[in-house]
Design a protein that fits this description.
Blueprint lengths: L9 E4 L3 H10 L3 H7 L9 H7 L8 E8 L4 E12 L4 E8 L9 H16 L4 E7 L3 H9 L3 E12 L2 E11 L7
Parallel strand pairs: 4-5
Antiparallel strand pairs: 1-2, 2-3, 3-4, 5-7, 6-7
Helix pairs in contact: 1-3
Length: 179
């Protein structure tokens, strides 16, 4: 039986009260903010972040707290949203909050784990995502595990006084390069 909630380096968990304070503080990290925000930044307080968790009974969204296994610490979140059971597709998002947790393989493990959950648990046919064209590390990771660029929103994002493209990617089960 495939384990769809535990990977080699990370595992999925539920959110607890203390995580929302960590997220509220992380929103002030420039890299995190600029990679996450599509429009003008509006800071959220802890109560706003608690509402971000949403309804646990909503089958249109699956949101997991992301914890690294060795230290058992909260490092971010991963989600599938806009889940469409007829079309068997969903939109993926991931956030590794603290810079010290980036470039350690946690993102790769979390993405593969969420793809495993989406394909094997939910029976999805396709997982989609969007990414800013200047987020080169994320693009490299997405392409490494098999995501294919399917579209470009030319100059769809204004950042640092210039226009950037937004890329749209899709992953089919047959293209998934589980690593």
């Amino acid at each position: 039986m495939k384990n769809v909630i535990k990977g080699d380096k990370v595992y999925f968990s539920h959110f607890v009260e203390e995580y929302f304070g960590i997220i509220a503080n992380a929103q002030w990290d420039n890299y995190f903010l600029r990679s996450l925000s599509w429009d003008a930044f509006h800071p959220w307080n802890i109560e706003n972040w608690k509402q971000f968790e949403g309804d646990n009974d909503d089958n249109g969204r699956f949101l997991f707290a992301l914890k690294e296994k060795e230290e058992d610490t909260f490092i971010g979140w991963v989600s599938l949203s806009d889940v469409q059971f007829k079309n068997r597709g969903a939109e993926l998002s991931i956030a590794i909050l603290d810079e010290k947790n980036r470039h350690k393989g946690y993102g790769t493990d979390a993405l593969n784990l969420m793809c495993k959950f989406g394909f094997y648990e939910l029976g999805l046919h396709k997982i989609r995502l969007s990414v800013h064209s200047n987020n080169e590390g994320a693009i490299k990771l997405y392409e490494k595990i098999g995501f294919k660029k399917e579209g470009i929103d030319r100059e769809g994002l204004f950042q640092d006084g210039k226009w950037l493209d937004v890329y749209y990617y899709g992953l089919l089960l047959n293209d998934w390069q589980y690593s």
